Amino acid sequence: MAVFRGKASEAGEAKVAGERSLLLGIGISAIGIGMYVPFSLVFFHHVTGLSFTLVGLVMTVTGVAGLAFMPLAGSAVDRFGAKRVNLVLYGIRALGFALYPFAGSLPAFAAVALVTALADRSFSVVQQSLIGEVARGAARDRLQASTRALQNAGMGAGALLVSGVLALWGTGAFTWTAWANSLAFVLAGLLVGRVRPVPAERSGPSAGRPAAGYRMVLRDRPFLGLTAANFLTALGYSALSVLFPLYLSTWLAAPDSLTGAAFTLNTALCAGIGVLVAGRVRRSGARRTRSAALGALLFAAAFAGQIVLGTLRPGQSATLVALLVIVVVYTLGELVHSPSGGALSVSAAPEPVRGRYLATYQLSYSLATALAPSLFTALLAVDGRLPWAVLTAAALGAALALLRLERHLPAEAVHAEPPAAAAARRPATAAA
Known about the structure:
With about 425 residues, this protein is mainly α. It contains 17 helices and two strands. Strands 1-2 form a two-stranded antiparallel ribbon. The N terminus and C terminus are likely disordered.
């Protein structure tokens, strides 16, 4: 097809037209995100001059409003296409960060923060839809893995960059950081604009289906089951940032520096070996449901390890080694689950309503992120091992659900490549 260039790889994949520009744009935008996310409250306090209390209140309210906007973003994708909506969101984010230094009053800050939050919260839906729009088959899995690796690397680089800037020029540099972030989104949008969508397929189970509203999504029980399974796994994704630091300081009485070490190890592994791990899984020919289930099982193993560690409570050196091993297992689960789970959701969504489907799916992440702090702190107050036990059960439940859903999901979603095509290519490969 014209939208692909280059020769297929041994795994039967092909490069997407404009793929390098797409990934470069994602990496640049991730650097911009990393320049403010780790310092959100401090960042906006210094940029606007408003108190921490007001900044926190506005961020909470606008964040909730952004969640409510996600279904509208899904509808916009189905009507106008993911690429167009993606470019609009990049433009809104660029404009928002360009205006933040001028939003010195509460109404001005609230207005800019609201518009920017709507774009931020909806971006994951649109980006997932864009991957489905520009790639087919195993190329989707590869893009999922590359995207996640670049996002981790970019956010880490952005955080280091702004830390160096602040060390040299102090908090006054936050204003210039906001403008640099705006420029990053502009550059990302220009690069992503070079990608070319794949023409819609007119055959298969979704062919002939008319575009429909969210009622079609709500009637699709297998996809809702997939979304529910992802909610259980998404709780585990929140564990490292929300539960882990509290567990270290309260139950294990370990130094807070271990939290930084765990985050650094997780980020380095995601950025350094994420694509390699995903490629190995992809080349194994495993079904996406089973790869995602394996990732969930690795999560469960890591969480069970925390229960054992919290029961034994060894010395500081043994605790450090055990925690780092647990983080490695947890990260491997993330690297195995994320590309397969993401490609599974994109491929299970019928093309005419892909935006609405993925908006529904992404809500599972958003709800898990919103629920995690209160859930984890309540369980931790009872027993430090209890939240890990709940997470272990949730991860095991997700793995079981994915395996049970396998025969109910579309074949093109379960298999990165049709089994017949893979079988037909093996003799040729062997003969070569």
